[in-house]
Design brief:
By secondary structure, the chain is mainly beta. Helix content is about 5%, strand content about 40%. The model is unreliable at about 5-40 (pLDDT under 50). The chain binds CU-O-CU linkage (C2O) and copper (II) ion (CU) (2 copies).
């Protein structure tokens, strides 16, 4: 039997929880880097995963996780772990109402799963640690995409205790669900998958031994990398025509980094979050995106030939004792270049995007308190055989997630979208569908969730992957 290591045991007893990493070898993979003199777009998008079904409304996909020679670190080929040989993995394009079968093949030497983060689908298809896929084995994930859930989602491994390693080696990809009628039809859609990573000089992924200081810091803070990627590229250039409006779907697939996005001197037009568009756009100076969250923003082209950057501003999510020295630096993510083409006729942003109904909380079946301490939920670490919370299908619940320690922990619930009621008692100023929400140090967030259907066991956890691996996760049983 394997013992689950808590943060406390890993930190104070200095136990080893990660295995050695495959290294070395030759080979190359395409990588595009932005040359400063270049004016053309260098940003690439992950390939779209091919639908092998020809029937309308039916999607059949093949996805394989396997070691692959890639340049995760520009110029340094290494053995990455990739979905269909690409990092990020291929983008899964779905439509509301689609019937989906994903044939998954595990060609890794480790047990894995694929979790479809944010999708409201049966527990049997959720890819939680309760349904492991052994090395060499295959699994079919079968589900229907519910109506009204158009939005930006993502997929990643969710094995018990080894998610950080698998994601760090390259296993993550985007999913986009489109509605029959898109209120932003005609606006160019751009996908930006944010990630970070850290490498050894030979280009292999730096996953330190937990006995080391770096290992302790990763366990405490969550593993952060010094290299910042957009769609697997460092500082790519994205181009836009003068006056053009683009819709950016941004996914934070980093293990622990929280981004605070900004474009200097500009406002951002925030139009959506985890579960898709808001009712109306909101203008903001910057935008926080915690681990596993998604945001949608509308960006307009600037003066012809002008250049600016998408940045992440300093944000102190850390415990003062393990805060990295460079936490207060502003970092650049991508260059935004406005072309010298003729201006595009200015497209107006619709003031109404879609209907977002508030969850009715007049009748609530349960009010729960979820306490986040360092590495634990309600004083416990994850036990796959334990049920932490029991609820009923057809009911609405209010959960208060309280963080009692001095660092942020983003909360995620599987299978069900929720709405934030308030943060530290301050009512959420707008309605949005969420599946992850950051709970800052010593803060409290209340959410409302409706358990309409899908009985079974559902995970809820901190989405800092190291914390999740160490057991900062619980199980909700719905009957
Ligand atoms: Cu994105 Cu339980 O995960
Ligand atoms: Cu999830
Ligand atoms: Cu955490």
């Amino acid at each position: 039997m394997r013992l689950r290591l808590t943060l406390a045991t890993a930190l104070f007893l200095g136990m080893v929880v990660l295995t050695g990493s495959p290294r070395g070898g030759a080979g190359a993979a395409p990588f595009q880097s932005a040359s400063p003199a270049s004016t053309a777009e260098t940003l690439t998008s992950p390939p779209v995963l091919r639908n092998t079904s020809e029937k309308p409304g039916v999607v059949e996909l093949d996805l394989t996780a396997a070691p692959s020679r890639l340049e995760l670190m520009p110029g340094k080929p290494t053995t990455a772990w990739a979905y269909n040989g690409s990092v990020p993995g291929p983008t899964i394009e779905l439509r509301e109402g689609d019937t989906v079968t994903i044939h998954f093949h595990n060609k890794l030497a480790q047990t894995t799963t694929v979790h479809w983060h944010g999708l409201h689908i049966p527990a049997s298809a959720d890819g939680s640690p309760l349904n492991p896929v052994k090395p060499g084995a295959s699994a079919d994930y079968v589900f229907k995409v519910p109506l009204g859930t158009a939005g930006t989602y993502w997929y990643h491994p969710h094995p018990d205790m080894t998610t950080t390693e698998q994601v760090s080696r390259g296993l993550f990809g985007a999913m986009i669900v489109r509605p029959a009628v898109d209120p932003l039809a005609g606006v160019r859609d751009r996908l930006l998958v944010l990630s970070d990573n850290r490498f050894l000089p030979d280009g292999s992924v730096d996953l330190p031994d937990h006995m080391s200081q770096a290992g302790h810091d990763d366990a405490e803070n969550g593993r952060e990398g010094n290299m910042l990627f957009v769609n697997g590229q460092v500082m790519p250039t994205l181009s836009i025509r003068p006056g053009e409006l683009q819709r950016w779907r941004i996914i934070n697939s980093a293990a622990a980094r929280i981004y605070k996005l900004a474009i200097p001197g500009r406002k951002l037009l925030h139009v959506g979050s985890d579960g898709g568009l808001f009712a109306t756009p909101r203008e903001v100076d910057d935008l926080m995106i915690a681990n596993s969250e998604r945001v949608e923003i509308l960006v307009r082209g600037g003066e012809p030939g002008s250049r600016t950057v998408l940045q992440t501003l300093p944000y102190d999510r850390y415990d003062p004792h393990t805060r990295p020295a460079d936490w207060n630096k502003t970092l650049d993510l991508l260059e935004l270049r406005t072309t010298t083409d003729a201006a595009v006729p200015a497209m107006t942003v619709p003031t109404m995007l879609r209907d977002v109904q508030a969850i009715d909380t007049k009748r609530v079946a349960a009010r729960r308190e979820i306490i986040f301490s360092q590495g634990m939920i309600n004083g416990k670490t994850m036990d796959m055989r334990r049920v932490d919370v029991s609820g009923r299908i057809g009911t609405t619940e209010i959960w208060q997630v309280e963080n009692v320690v001095a660092m942020d922990h983003p909360f995620h619930l599987h299978g069900f979208r929720f709405q934030v009621i308030d943060r530290d008692g301050v009512p959420e100023p707008y309605l949005s569908w969420k599946d992850s929400v950051n709970v800052p140090k010593h803060a409290r967030v209340r959410i409302a969730v409706r358990f309409e259907d899908f009985a079974g066991k559902w995970m809820f956890h901190c989405h800092i992957l190291d914390h999740e691996d160490m057991g900062m996760m619980g199980i909700l049983l719905l009957r």
